[in-house]
Each structure stands twice: as structure tokens, then as C-alpha cells.
Amino acid sequence: MKSEFILAMNELCSERQLPRSVIIEAIEAALVSAYKRDHEGEVRAQIDPETGQTRVFTAKTVVEQIDRPCEEITLPEAQKIDPDVTVGGNVWFEITPKDFGRIAAQTAKQVIVQRIREAERNALYDEFAERKHEICNATVQSVGPQGITLNLGRAEAVMPPGEQIRGEHLRPHSRIRVYVLGVKETPRGPEIIVSRAHKDMLKRLLELEVPEIFNGQVEIKAIAREAGSRSKVAVFATQPGVDPVGCCVGMRGMRIQSIVNELGGEKIDVIEWSPDSSTFVANALSPAKVLNVILEEREDGRTATVVVPDRQLSLAIGKEGQNARLAARLTGWRIDIKPASAAAVEAFGAMGFDDLSGEQDLLRAAEALLLGHEQSRQNPTTEEGPAESGEQKP
User: Fold this and answer.
1) Domain 198-273 architecture
2) What is the C-alpha separation between 10 and 364, in angstroms, rounded?
3) Dihedral over alpha carbons 249, 252, 258, 261 (to 10 degrees)
4) 345-387, pLDDT tens digit by residue?
């Protein structure tokens, strides 16, 4: 008949889904550690998996003359246990104390509790390792200078200051959504790091709010984000007839407004991605209107020179250069924005028109250029000279 010890251990293994062999090995190791606190020498413990009976064995070295009684034994004494043993070998014999059953029970309880905690920690680690790069709901527990502690249900998470949305003030018991950035193993259990400032947080929110993105009809090509202030998202329709920007914005802007509210009022520009780099750069500078884009690939990087109307220069650059900065990060091009007047001065200067400082000068240069083209068109020439009257052209 199985002992209560084995029955209790089997029940715990079944409830917590812990391997029985792991528990037995852990208890044996703990018993050895407990016994060696008051005894010297090599010791091992053995638990009968059927009866639960615990036995302790010690090893002694066979010698001709004993110098250390706790670690050595004479050959005649050793041969009573193992007839084949020789001098220099080891022999194991039982030294189970009378009250070792009580010690074993206490140790087993401690080990099982410890193993349960370790198993639960491992289960939590595995669960959130699978949920890495996903969004989950959280409740704010405490706010401090080292970060915000969040309750994820079965586990706690930390949101460092660098992963918080700038200007967002969270209070205890507030319910928010967070992005699982990573999971670390620590002696106290898994440490879950979450974020609300990561650009993939915006990507996951779009996947939740826009069915066309979740179904694959619309694809997110790139995201540039300055959390708490402004973001730009480039989208592309994988099926003809689908308006990618309209799908993300939603009717009357309801879909994008839901995300804006979740992110504390962060402005989100949704633009259409294009395989043509010039078109993509022009779209990325939205809401500014672009007149022309000149692309240049140099050794030090790719540069896009963008010409915009004079009145829209500040809109294209944005507050503190934010619009141009986000557009550059979104497209991967270094963007140089020029007003149309400055671009015109440079163009006329390349044609030989100098000293163009004002609008009137530009108009006169344009008039001279147009008149020159008109005169050239009215008086065509060939390599042989002016065409004679009545002569037919080939």
C-alpha cells in the first residue's frame, strides 16, 4: 500500500502538471543537503517511488589504516558490505537516522512548494514569451520614477520611462493597452517589459481596428512614430479597387479616431505607399502639396530634393522639422525641402540668368526665356542654314 507521502506527491504532480521524477530528484537532493549540514563525507539519498521510504547512504574510501573515520573504512569492514571491493575503492552503506522520516517529510514539503513556484514561473514565462510582440490589456498598479508597474492578470509587467508616451499621465487603476516588448528570466520570476511608445504598438492597433489589414487586403509598408506627438503610416492595397487610406481612416474617421484616443491624442497621418520613390516621398510630406521631387543617390546616402509652394514651406517642414523628419524616416530618403521661388532662382541661374533677387526679376527671366523659345520656334534652322521659302521639308 502506498504511503500518504507518495499519494500526496502524486496528487500535486497531477494538479500542477509537474513530472514525478523531477520532484523525487529534487527531494533527494534536498535531503542530501539537509543531512550534510551536520555530517561530513559523500552522501546520497534514495526514495522508493512505490512506498515512499527514504534511505540515506554514505560512501567511504577503503584504506589499510584509518586516518579520517568519517571518510575512510578498513578493508575487512568494507568486504562485509561488498566482497569484491579493494583498497582505494569506495563502498556505500546505509546510515539512515532514526528520525529521518520527519526530516524527509519537512524537506519534501519545502521542495514541493519550491518546485510549484518554479513551475508556475516557467509557465508564466512560456505564456508571455509566446505573446511577445502582441498587445494585451493591463491595469496600472503604481507609478514611479523607475517605471510604471502594471497588472496583466496572472503576472506583473514593467513599463520603463523610455517606453512611455511622452506627456501621458497614467494613474493607478487605469486600464490601458500595452505592447509586450520582451520577457526576461530573473530569480524572482519572469520580468515582462511592455511599451506604449514602440511603433509596432501602432501597427497592432491598426490590425485590431481595421479588418482589411487583418485580412491582408491592406498592407502596412512602413511606420514612423514620435510617440505622443505624431506618426506617419504608409499603407498599400494588395487587391484592386480597395482604398487603403480610406479603409484605415474609416467612415467619418471613426477607425483612426479610436486609435488616436487610445494613444492619448497622438496625430496619425495615413498615406498611400507607392513603388515609385518620387511619388512615395511626395505622399509622405502630406498634408503639404509637392510640386516636384528630384532623387539623387550618392555615396553618402540617398537624397530627395522636394520643391513645394512658398506658402506651404512651413507646412512641409512641420513644427520643429517634425513633418520632414518623419517623412524621411518613413521613406528612407534624406529630404531637402526648397520653396518654389528658390528652386526657380537656381534653375534660371543654371541657364545664365544672374542677379535674380525678387519676384519681378523671376518674371522677366521667365518672359525672356519664353520669348527666346517662341523666336526659335518661329525661325527654325537646319545644319545648312535657314530654310528657303517654298522648300518642302522632308
Assistant:
1) 2-Layer Sandwich (3.30)
2) 98
3) 110
4) 665 555 555 554 545 454 555 555 455 544 444 445 544 444 4
CA dist 62 and 309 (Å) reads: 98
**DSSP character at residue 391:** P
**SS3 (DSSP) at 197:** coil
CA–CA distance, 212 with 219 (Å, rounded to integer)? 8
**CATH architecture group of domain 4-126:** 2-Layer Sandwich (3.30)
Residue 350: per-residue pLDDT: 52
pTM of the predicted model over 0.85: no
Q: Calculate ∠ Cα 366-368-370, nearest 5°.
A: 70
**Domain 287-374: which CATH number of 3.50.50.60, 1.10.530.10, 3.30.300.20, 3.40.50.2000:** 3.30.300.20
Q: State the cell numbers at 257.
A: 479616431
3-state secondary structure at position 305? strand
Just give the CATH number of 131-195. 2.40.50.140
Q: Which three cell numbers stand for residue 41?
A: 563525507
Interval 27-37: pLDDT, tens: 787 777 777 76
Domain residue ranges of the chain, discontinuous segments joined by +: 4-126, 131-195, 198-273, 287-374
Of the ranges 16-30, 129-143, 356-370, the best mean pLDDT one: 129-143
